[in-house]
Amino acid sequence: MGQESHAFQAEVSRLLDIVAHSLYSNKEIFLRELISNASDACDKLRYAALTQSELMAGDGELQIKISADLSAKTITIADNGIGMNKEDLVENLGTIARSGTAAFVEQLSGDAKSDVGLIGQFGVGFYSAFMVADKVTVLTRRAGEVDGWRWESDGKGSFTIDDAADAPARGTRITLHIAEEQQEYLDKARLRQIVKTYSDHIALPIYLLDGGKDSQINEGSALWSRPKNEITEEQYTEFYRHAGHMFDEPWHVMHNRQEGVIEYTNLLFVPSARPFDLFHPERSNHVKLYVKRVFITDDCADLLPPWLRFLRGVVDSEDLPLNISREMLQHNPVLAKIRSGLVKRVVGELKTKADNEPEAYAAFWDMFGPVVKEGIYEDQGQRDDLLALARFKSSEHEGWVSLEDYVGRLRDGQTEIFYVTGDDAAALKDSPQLEAFKAKGIEVLLLTDPVDEFWIPGVSDFSGKPFRSVTRGDIDVSAIAGKDGVTPPEDETDTSGELASLTALLKVTLSDAVKDVRPSRRLTNSAVCLVADEGDVDMHLERILRQHNQTNEVSKRILEINPKHSLIRRMAESVAAKGEGALGPDAVGDLAFLLLDQARIAEGEPVEDANAFARRLTSVMERGLA
User: Are 150 and 161 in contact (CB under 8 A)?
Assistant: First the structure.
């Protein structure tokens, strides 16, 4: 074929530049990353050999070998796993094919110190080799294929690919040409210590060439198959990082063996940091499925529901057939029972955390609450348990509150759970729709996740108390006790006749822009606000749907006016005394549309015609100065 030169994908070049030039405080993790990749390659071969036994011919013991050459200043990591062909080399070592990569790279600022933290969350895999090497050579041959290949790069923008007769018979051999300032890693005792620290859990033997012979330097048994009392916290952490390609500490570890009709072992981890691809549209889970310690797949859609996709780890079944295909896993009754058991266990563990460690649980909810709430919408069987686990921001309390907390604080006369949806909790607290609630100290839940718009309609109530949006219908809180427990009398000021004239005039003027105009019982300080009619789509939901091109509709809303506001009173008095002409030529139209635009702005909506808004505002200001 002859040597070919290729440029790295732009995202890879950016990562390599940061990796090579940053002062990464823990460069020894390069060995962990390369061993992890070698382990994955062996797992893939073991799975492929279930249906193609010839792929294992001639070299049946899957293993990883490490050697260091002090004179050549090289470290070699070799495996006899699945190997790669030319296409694999271009795809795996020249691009980053993992979902969500583009979104991740967009977060890179160009500042090495801050970007290293992001890369730590993402994981750099093979490219971590360039933290210690100024050149990397890969010799590889894919199982079952004849041609061998050589990949080589100095990590500075391009790589070469060539035929390689000296490639291993099967698998991959990576040689790192160690940079001058990183030669501590050529010491075999150092390599042994790194493997013991980070890769002791790898479930196949890792050998170090020392004194002319290979010696195994790891335990070599599946970590999840060992008794819990024999596993240290550090071993759990390193397995989590290996299995999940994560760099943080696990927030919680779940290691259990289920025995009985269905037998399986799970070793699951809840991360302490939000994975970079948590909200990727694919919503894939990242828990590896094994059968009798044989790797099957790391993308089994039926193993866990999408709302638990933040979990990392492994599930090892004793009951699924070893030769099961990924296609046969779909709707498999054994897998369905495993899934049900895992969901119940995870929900139970989260409930225990919420009850016993509320501050730690609050940190979890900060990270993964929006994902868990997807389960309220999608998983009817878990709905009640997930509602109990859910936490919300509140108009009356700092931090997170539960629905149980909320119901326990209901005021005398309050029969509903009040909520408001929007993009930002601080902005919602200042929403005009909350004024009557704030005046009486009535708690309102502030829902700021897009998923809130979808689960709320499917949940009729909690503890017998229905959910009620404060932005829909004709809200009346007059029967609910105030902060002191007393229900205050209604304001006896009678402006009904004057207000009726103004209301009728505004209805006519704004007939093409609003559904109705009516006096408000929810406003105390603002002059106006917009609300949705009882059967209409919520305003925030409609905004979300428009942003995602799911609708072009702009529904007409109800304009509520505050009868007690000085502006509304003066307008009502003038119209009642002198009719429409009392406000001057064109004044009614200007004032009416300015009120409507004011309500739109308070709702976070843009004014429909910015030029008309500016003209009307100028006109009203001029009349005010006359």
Answer: yes
Quick one: three-class SS letters along 206-265? EEEEECCEEEECCCCCCHHHCCHHHCCHHHHHHHHHHHHCCCCCEEEEEEEEECCCCCEE
Q: How many Å apart are CA 508 and CA 413, to the nearest integer?
A: 37
Domain co-membership, 86 together with 192:
yes
Give CA–CA dist 510/68, Å, rounded: 81
Find the angle CA(205)-CA(211)-CA(215) to the nearest 5 degrees: 15
Helix (H, G, I), strand (E, B) or coil at 65: strand
Nearest to 105 by CA among 7, 8, 9, 15: 15
Number of domains in the chain: 4
Residue after which a domain boundary falls, among 490, 512, 546: 490
Residue 303 belongs to what domain range?
Answer: 224-360
Q: Is 414 helix (H, G, I), strand (E, B) or coil?
A: coil
Residue-wise pLDDT tens digits, 523-579: 999 999 999 988 888 878 888 887 777 777 778 999 999 999 999 998 888 888 776
Cβ distance 247 to 302 under 8 Å?
no
- Residue at a domain's end among 449, 474, 490: 490
Helix axes 188-198, 233-244, angle to 10 degrees: 90
How far is residue 287's CA from residue 284's CA, in Å, rounded to a whole number?
Answer: 9
Q: How far apart are CA 273 and CA 603, in angstroms?
A: 33
Secondary structure letter of residue 311 according to DSSP: -
Query: 415 pLDDT exceeds 80?
Result: yes
Which distant-in-sequence residues (6+ apart) come within 8 Å of 531 by Cβ? 433, 471, 472, 473, 475, 522, 539, 557, 558, 560
Q: Tell me if 278 sits within 8 A of 451, measured CB to CB.
A: no
Return d(Cα 81, Cα 43) in angstroms, integer. 7
Strands (E), 318-438: 391-394, 401-402, 417-421
